[in-house]
Design a protein that fits this description.
Elements lengths: L6 H16 L4 H21 L1
Helix pairs in contact: 1-2
């Protein structure tokens, strides 16, 4: 997993992750969202 250097980014991702876990989405949907988050983290790292 990509390390998030910016603390604000880290908090945002933690909130999103928490929301995913609490949500009643099917496991497949959760996995899609997790994958999107990984891609987003990677893109943030590339931008920096």
């Amino acid at each position: 997993m990509v390390e998030i250097k910016n603390n604000k980014d880290h908090k945002i991702f933690k909130e999103i992750k928490k929301a995913i876990e609490l949500d009643d989405l099917p496991e497949e949907e959760k996995e899609n969202i997790r994958q999107l988050l990984k891609n987003l983290k990677f893109q943030l790292e590339v931008i920096r």
